[in-house]
Write a structure and sequence with these properties.
- This protein is of the alpha/beta class.
Length: 406
């Protein structure tokens, strides 16, 4: 009788590598590793070999960067999804896509188990488990194994376990700081080590995408980003795919020290966590789309969108991507952005990203209405009657209630 199978979300790091060994020992299952490439870069080099060395019967790598951008990142950008106004949800957006690929791969190989490396006090366990349960909720029997949540090992014990299993891992080094890093195209999430002290400044060795201010160029750089219906399509007149555009901005904005976020974050499980992020492209694009919206949306549209953006951000952060409410809000966002087409001019300099120009053929800004020059077309005489009607409710209330005791 053949063994059961488990599809393990695999990054090549210490936790996921020792999970291969642990699942085989604990559950007596054949482990198939699944590496979902969302823009991890050099970190996933050699993952197939490493997985096989740890005992995986098969190692799969899927390049899903295009799907990540078109189906997750850009919809979230259009929705203004910025958790607690600072976090571009780089990790949170990746988890539902990874969960989707885990379920699809489990179906392909007839596996009864899927596994991820989340701990018992983080947000990711909720994002993975909720997504997996939702996507496999049609009668399928797919069980979830979460080794790091189950085994109860400390970081030092994990290192010892890896050594006993004969695994050679880059994290095991003397006097070496080991940050927990989640990297994808949309950003880096960095935790652990010195970062857990909320009074200590993040050390430079925690960052890899952004220059410190003393290493940034001494001259500002001006760029022009073109949008179509709320989505970026080109930079300085050069059309790019979504993946290439984000990669370009990560490099350019990172060179200017843009995109560092140091945040004391409210986790879904009820604790606060010091989170450090690098999201150069996201910072530039969010600043840009917000600036464009000031021209193409009415005041009421802007305010309703802002309210729904917060709800949307919470849904993504809390692992509720695959919900009807998220889709409902997305429909509104697609509609409200239908005229967000135009150009945004930005100045990148010493960690700052400032909008210095905006234009759109759909702009609600009317020069002749706004100007105080000789071309002013605003009917000033209409203001008197407008103010009389506008102030009527407050005048009546003041007469009848507010000042009746004077």
């Amino acid at each position: 009788m053949s063994k059961g199978k488990c599809i393990l979300a695999y990054s090549g790091g210490m936790d996921s590598t020792i999970s291969v060994v642990w699942i085989k020992e604990k559950y007596d299952l054949d482990v198939i590793t699944l590496t979902v490439d969302l823009g991890a870069g050099p970190e996933i080099e050699g993952v197939k070999e490493k997985a096989k060395q740890a005992g995986a019967v098969e190692a799969i790598v899927l390049d899903v960067k295009e799907e990540f951008v078109t189906e997750y990142i850009f919809p979230a950008l259009k929705a203004g999804a910025m958790y607690e106004n600072v976090y571009a949800l780089s990790t949170a957006l990746a988890r539902p896509l990874m969960a989707k690929k885990l379920v699809e791969t489990a179906r392909k190989f007839g596996a009864g188990y899927v596994s991820h490396g989340c701990t018992g006090k983080g947000n990711d366990q909720v994002r993975f488990d909720s997504s997996i349960k939702t996507l496999s909720g049609n009668g399928e029997s797919i069980e979830i194994i979460a080794p790091a949540r189950e085994w109860g090992m400390t970081r030092d014990e994990e290192k010892e376990y890896a050594k006993k299993a004969g695994l050679e891992l880059r994290e095991i080094g003397k006097n070496q700081r080991v940050y927990s890093i989640d990297r994808n195209l949309w950003g880096l999430a960095i935790e652990g080590e010195d970062l857990e002290d909320t009074w200590a400044e993040p050390p430079e060795d925690a960052f890899s995408w952004t220059n410190s201010l003393d290493k940034t160029p001494d001259k500002p750089e001006i760029i022009d980003i073109q949008f179509r219906e709320g989505m970026p399509i080109s930079i300085n007149g050069k059309n790019m795919s979504g993946v290439k555009l984000i990669e370009f901005l990560n490099n350019l904005a990172g060179k200017h020290g843009i995109g560092r976020v140091d945040h004391l974050e409210n986790r879904l499980v009820g604790i606060k966590s010091r989170e450090v992020y690098e999201t150069p492209a996201a910072v530039v694009l969010y600043n840009s789309i917000i600036a464009l919206e000031t021209a193409t949306l009415s005041r009421e549209q802007q305010r309703i969108k802002s309210f729904l953006s917060q709800n949307y951000s919470d849904l993504v952060y809390d692992g509720r991507w695959f919900t009807m409410l998220r889709e409902n809000i997305q429909t509104f966002m697609n509609s409200v952005q239908q005229f967000s087409t135009g150009d945004i001019k930005l100045k990148l300099y010493k960690g700052s990203c400032n909008v210095i120009g905006r234009k759109s053929k759909f702009s609600l800004y009317d020069y002749d209405m706004s100007t105080y020059s000789s071309t002013d077309s605003f009917n000033h005489s209409s203001a008197v009657g407008f103010i009389d009607i506008y102030s009527l409710p407050s005048r009546i209330q003041a007469k009848k209630q507010k000042f009746n005791d004077l």
